[in-house]
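testing teh design pipeline on a random one, pls ignore if ur not involved
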């Protein structure tokens, strides 16, 4: 973490993980790398196929509510091994959390979701209805610093 690799410099690392079936990585922390949505999409392609990764930290990677949130939602729909996902300190607002919420309505493996410091606001919290009502595996949601206000 904290190496600010950026998407271009990170491609060989993801390719090495993807192309090495003997790799037994169960925890992947690639926080603070400024991967942005395009880099997260690349990571998501790997995560969708992984059957052993249990914990993923993608903090401070400039993920937005657009393509990055869409890619993560697809991971949550397809991956059956991830138990912990931390996407704190990104730029995922109400629109993005709605995409993740929809995926979590059917996900039955994620136990912890870190979404602190994403400026979700009251609308974003309202968009989390499915994960709270329908998800049976989620045990912990970290929501600090999201400008929720009294209406949230």
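output:
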């Amino acid at each position: 973490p904290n190496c600010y690799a950026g998407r271009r410099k990170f491609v060989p690392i993801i390719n090495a993980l993807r192309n090495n079936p003997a790799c037994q990585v169960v925890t992947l922390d690639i926080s603070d790398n400024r991967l942005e949505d395009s880099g997260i999409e690349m990571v998501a392609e790997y995560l969708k196929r992984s059957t052993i990764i249990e914990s993923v930290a993608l903090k401070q990677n400039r993920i937005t509510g657009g393509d990055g949130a869409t890619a993560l939602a697809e991971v949550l729909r397809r991956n059956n091994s991830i138990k912990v996902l931390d996407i704190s300190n990104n730029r995922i607002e109400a629109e993005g959390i709605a995409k993740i919420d929809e995926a979590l309505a059917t996900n039955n493996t994620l136990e912890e979701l870190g979404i602190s410091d994403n400026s979700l606001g009251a609308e974003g919290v309202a968009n989390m209805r499915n994960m709270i009502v329908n998800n049976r595996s989620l045990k912990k949601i970290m929501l600090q610093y999201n400008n929720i206000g009294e209406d949230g």
